[in-house]
């Protein structure tokens, strides 16, 4: 199955603070935050794109703006611009959604979906347009075969078939997976290093932008199956996560479970409970929270 994945560096360039070196937004976002989402006349979330964009995206706003009055001001150098986005003639409307509910409604098994938060319609000198935004939120795809949420190609995560989805549900773990294997990597050392560097940057982009539901444990899990400890170690670091209660863990090709600070989470692999429960215990210790 072919999975459509947005090009992360193109999305990054559509974030206002990155594109024009503007101050970053202080908007508080999380799985349970309520936002206003652009929908069609039936109330279904609507995807749009500018003439200069490859990826269709959903649009969401922090306020309950009336359509036809959505306007944003921002400065580029000494130039102050006001971008006016008029949806009133397109039979569209705004509808409040909890971010997690929006993710559940739009995620599917074919695409990683993109939500642009507080967008503006920007028109370039060449006459093309694109939606720039304060921040980007990623809705992971749901793989039907493994019954797991992920932001990489399911073909690289077939090992997840070993995790019974009923066991994960019984224990209450909420996990989004990112996987990298040797499958699509070249043997040429120089090209391989270049791709791996790009993958690390991609991971750093995705990890802080994927909402994860609160469960007995809430994890962004990175599966590293490169059969090269030095290459795998390069991925392991303290990435930010979208929700304050979620954490990132790494599973290496030698089946060690590591934290972003390279600590090992010891476990007994005799039963799935003896794998999951030490992770939950570690995360509770990180948060200092009694569930």
Structural features:
291 residues, alpha/beta, 2 domains, 6-stranded mixed beta sheet, 7 helices
What does this structure look like?
- The protein is α/β, with parallel strands linked by helices.
- The protein has 2 domains: 8-139, no CATH class; 142-287, no CATH class.
- The protein is 22% helix and 30% strand.
- It has 7 helices and 14 strands.
- The protein has helices at 8-12, 16-19, 99-106, 165-171, 189-206, 229-235, 273-287; strands spanning 34-39, 47-48, 57-61, 70-76, 79-85, 93-98, 113-123, 129-139, 141-143, 148-150, 173-181, 217-225, 247-251, 257-259.
- Strands 1, 2, 3, 6, 7 and 8 form a 6-stranded mixed sheet that branches.
- Helix 6 links the parallel strand 12 (217-225) and strand 13.
- The radius of gyration is 20 Å and the shape is globular.
- Mean pLDDT is 87; it is low at 73-80.
**In total, how many domains does the architecture comprise?**
2
Proportion of beta-strand residues: 25-35%
Number of helices: 7
Distance between the termini: 39 Å
Tally of strands:
14
Mean pLDDT: 87
Global Rg: 20 Å
Secondary-structure element string: HHEEEEEEHEEEEHEHEHEEH
Spans where pLDDT lies below 50 across 5 or more residues:
73-80
Q: Which structural category fits the helices and strands?
A: alpha/beta
């Amino acid at each position: 199955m072919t999975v459509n994945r947005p090009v992360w560096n193109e999305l990054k360039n559509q974030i206002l603070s990155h594109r024009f070196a503007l101050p970053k937004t202080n908007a508080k976002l999380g799985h349970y935050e309520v936002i206003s989402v652009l929908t069609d006349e039936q109330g279904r979330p609507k995807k749009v794109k500018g003439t200069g964009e490859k990826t269709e995206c959903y649009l969401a706003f922090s306020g309950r703006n009336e359509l036809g009055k959505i306007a944003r001001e921002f400065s580029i150098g000494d130039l102050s611009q006001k971008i006016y986005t008029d949806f009133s003639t397109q039979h569209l409307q705004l509808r409040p959604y909890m971010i997690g509910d929006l993710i559940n409604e739009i995620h599917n098994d074919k695409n990683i979906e993109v939500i642009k938060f507080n967008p503006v319609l920007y028109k370039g000198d060449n006459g093309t347009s694109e939606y720039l935004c304060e921040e980007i939120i990623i809705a992971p795809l749901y793989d039907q075969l493994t019954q797991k949420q992920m932001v990489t190609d399911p073909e690289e995560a077939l090992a997840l078939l070993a995790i019974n989805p009923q066991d994960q549900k019984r224990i209450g773990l909420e996990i989004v997976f990112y996987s990298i294997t040797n499958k699509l990597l070249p043997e040429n050392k120089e090209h391989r290093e270049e791709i791996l560097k790009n993958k690390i940057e991609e991971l750093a982009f995705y990890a802080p932008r994927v909402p994860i539901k609160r469960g007995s444990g809430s994890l962004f899990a990175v599966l590293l199956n490169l059969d090269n400890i030095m290459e795998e170690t390069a991925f392991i670091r303290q990435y930010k996560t979208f929700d304050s209660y979620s954490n990132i863990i790494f599973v290496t090709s030698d089946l060690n479970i590591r934290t972003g600070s390279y600590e090992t989470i010891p476990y007994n692999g005799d039963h799935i409970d003896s794998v999951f429960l030490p992770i939950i215990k570690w995360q509770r210790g990180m948060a200092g929270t009694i569930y």
